[in-house]
Amino acid sequence: MCRGVVLNVSVREEISRLLPSGMSFREIGRELDRDHTVISREVGRNGGRREYRAHTAQTAADARLARPKDRKIETDERLLAQVNTGLGQQWSPRQISKRLVIDFPDDDTMRVSHEQIYQALYFQARGQLKVQLLGQLRRGGTTRVSRAQRREIAENRKKVIPAMTMITERPPEVEDRAVPGHWEGDLIMGAGNRSAIITLVERSTRFVLLGKLNYDHTAARTSLVLSNLMGTLPDLLRCSLTWDQGREMARHESFTIATGIPVYFCDPHSPWQRGSNENTNGLLRQYFPKGEDLHQYSQSYLDAVAAELNGRPRETLGWRTPAEKLADTLSGNGGALTI
């Protein structure tokens, strides 16, 4: 089927010839290798079945192409300001579009599709946009470590972690994300694997915590920083931690004694068992590109990055933000986040 191909005069002549035969739009579409909705719109905007004429329809189409319209973002200053606010916070076009519905529920003028925002960004890159959009698409140039690379690293390390409790023994309540306080964790690595940052994601709210590992990422230091990072959480948010079989967690028992949080380990080569954390690590590479020395970033900068991620609306949360979701969770249980 021809998709994205503009109708020309010969196709319109075929439509004009087939309409009097009584064929349906679906039948005409199959005959011309076009979607039936394309045929329906073409006939509807040009007088209907009885009035449709090929050359008249072609003349109208040529006139529409010759008369470019301003995009909604270009003509509405309030809408432009909201889009730029989202882009400035590194939100995706889809997040911006969906959040407008929540923030302006009774104002239909504050609506723009994510496709329109993408198109505006692309037009701006070619110098064809009349207004200025801030920033760029947040994943520009960002790539993840492939599964094959992770597998090679894992096989070369010969990790030995004593007394592991596997993910199969994790409480069933963790799976449906209905109960807060269950976290997924990992490290993102710097140049030559000589520096690292702890990344934590709460499964039910997608709330993110980041921890700076000074000097090294040995098991002893990882356990200490993790204990400091999670030890001050309210009891409601200290139910479990799921990690891969990285040797940095060799002292997981010390962490559990210090915090009361049990650690569950994923199966080998199974990053999808920490899906929320894997997704977050991909987003974090925008802020911490591969090949950089992560020692250069302060804990205060890490906190600012986490706050930015926690302020992004998420589709899986009904376009609410992780910070909003966590606040609702804590307020409903009489708690407060003190970190």
How is the secondary structure organized here?
Layout: H1 9-18, H2 25-32, H3 36-44, H4 48-51, H5 54-65, H6 72-75, H7 77-88, H8 93-103, H9 114-125, H10 147-157, E1 182-189, E2 196-202, E3 208-212, H11 219-230, E4 240-243, H12 252-259, E5 263-265, H13 275-284, H14 299-310, H15 322-331
Parallel strand pairs: 1-4, 4-5
Antiparallel strand pairs: 1-2, 2-3
Helix pairs in contact: 1-5, 2-3, 7-8, 8-9, 11-12
Describe this protein's structure:
The protein has 339 residues and is α/β, with parallel strands linked by helices. It folds into 3 domains: 58 residues; 54 residues, no CATH class; 172 residues, Nucleotidyltransferase, domain 5 (2-Layer Sandwich). 43% of the residues lie in helices and 8% in strands. The chain has a 5-stranded mixed beta sheet. It starts with 8 loop residues before the first helix and ends in an 8-residue tail after the last helix.
The total domain count is: 3
CATH superfamily of the largest domain: Ribonuclease H-like superfamily/Ribonuclease H
Strand content: 5-15%
How are the strands ordered across the major sheet? 3-2-1-4-5
Helix fraction bin: 40-55%
Low-confidence stretches: 137-145
Query: How would the global form be characterised?
Result: elongated
Element pattern in H and E? HHHHHHHHHHEEEHEHEHHH
CATH class descriptor of the largest domain: Alpha Beta
User: What name is given to the CATH topology of the largest domain?
Assistant: Nucleotidyltransferase, domain 5
Report the CATH architecture of the largest domain: 2-Layer Sandwich
Could you tell me the radius of gyration in angstroms?
27 Å
Number of strands: 5
Note the gap between the termini: 56 Å
Major sheet, described briefly? 5 strands, mixed
Number of helices: 15
- The structure class reads alpha/beta
Mean of residue pLDDT values: 85
Organism: Gordonia malaquae NBRC 108250
Domain Integrase catalytic: 167-330
GO biological process, one term: DNA transposition
GO molecular function, one term: DNA binding
